[in-house]
Amino acid sequence: MSDTPNPTPPAQRLIVNPLLGDRVVQTPGRMNRREGATVCPFCADIAAGRWPDDQPTWARPNDFPPLRPPLGECYVLLYAREHDLTFVQLGQERVAAVVDLWQQIYLDLSARYACVMTFENSGEAIGQTQHHPHGQTYGVSFLPPTIERELAHVTAAYAQTGTCLFCQVVAGEAGGPRVVVETPHWLGFVPQWARYPYEVHLYARTHVANIGALPRGGDAARELATALIQLVGAYDTLYEAPMPYMLALHQLADERYHFHIELLPVGRAPGKLKFAASAESAFGLWLNDAVPEIKAAELRTVLAGGQ
Ligand SMILES: [Zn+2]
Ligand SMILES: [Zn+2]
To answer: Which fold has domain 163-240+258-303?
Structure first.
């Protein structure tokens, strides 16, 4: 490598690992974000009248964006004006508004970017720095490695079978022992390849490529809000506290792709976390301390009110 030290770091730099093909974004400005700040910047927005009165949710520009144009754009997705609510406490109406915000931001950013990464990091254990209920969105000009790999496998499957690999997964899981949530529009299950004990993937039952393709305010959007509240609530019950989790919308403006949400809860038992340690981080080999069928049964019991 011929790079020489640069006394003025660039605002951002996209590097491709020549050994793996993975991308790394270097974004030194984020080192100074507001851990430990005593004033919530989002409550300050409300006090200053910056949050438009007619919007129940708000896509606010990220003050410490890891990506800037032309590489990307980053927003904080504010879920509610109330500072202290957990995702479950938001309730049906406000989570439905969150789903609507996910749809709006997708439609906006997908016009300019190759991928819209909408996600949430919940809990200090996985790096949440602001407690006001929120998620995030990055519009990115390239495909994140995981989405790229999924698309490659799906494309290969189309060539082989002529059908969507994700749809095959939905058909294979429906009615099976790993199912956790079933609604007319969604199937939630602990995938056979789960990395975290309580990992749940929520798939659209019909083939849609992204959340922007769902009718806004329709049954599918409402069912999604209900399912997410139930799942996160079940995590909290099993963890006996708010379980730290990641939530990621996997979507693309590509009809071969199939919209799904991955819930990656990092709790494995009350007070115990699953870390991406050496096997996972250094070797890419995930060790799951649990069997998906058993964890799915536990989640079903909690969701049925049996615990
Ligand atoms: Zn706040
Ligand atoms: Zn499909």
So the answer is: HIT family, subunit A (3.30.428)
